[in-house]
Amino acid sequence: MTSLDPVLDKDGVRLVVDGETATVTLTNPARRNAQSPALWRALAEAGRALPGDVRVVVLRGEGKSFSAGLDRQAFTPEGFPGEPSFLGMARGGDAEMDAIIAGYQEAFTWWRRSDIVTVAAVQGHAIGAGFQLALACDLRVVADDVQFAMRETSLGLVPDLTGTQPLVALVGYARALEICATGRFVTAQEAVTSGLANLAVEREQLDDTVRDLVAALLAAPRDAVIETKALLQGAAGRTFDEQRAAERAAQGRRLRDLAGVGE
Fold it and tell me: What is the pTM assigned to this prediction?
């Protein structure tokens, strides 16, 4: 753990920057890092606060669990103080509800930016919103005690925090549907074999493993990593010939940059 002063430390979220690496930590282990609208706003603020020279962002949760998901206070009639209650949202118009949920989703979107690589270090429970937050990152390293679950359907809801697309992309439609519809736990071994996680290690090795991965990610030149990430992110939406053309264009930019030749 770094001892550097945090750039941000509020509402259960702490952002610390150490050169080209930033660490975003969920800091409410007593409640298993349960999530709330205030936490989501803090996560979105952390994304906006990243210095431009940060290349890798690590997301982690303090304590035994990464995040047990949405704080159950959201389902009470009063909800969170000063926040729209779920019952209140249901009584509002479609446009109002859409705007509120879109605001919540901002906490989960910036992790996919092409100029950074994001790594979730996940231990214990990652349920519902916690699962979707881990899915927001590019890479996931999990402890052997990890338990992923998408429990929204058991509450009569759907996953709405941007997790459905990456889940399908990682494990395929049929497995994604089964995971979401049943709400069952996905363990570390299945997470790796299904493509949901990149690595699974013993709990006490999680921090060191993530540190080694970050070092490996930083070893390559930044612009090459940015171009490669953009190529891979767009591959599913392109035809084979379109991807070939995108590769040629990206490589041309890299070669001109290396040769010091302007476009």
Answer: 0.93
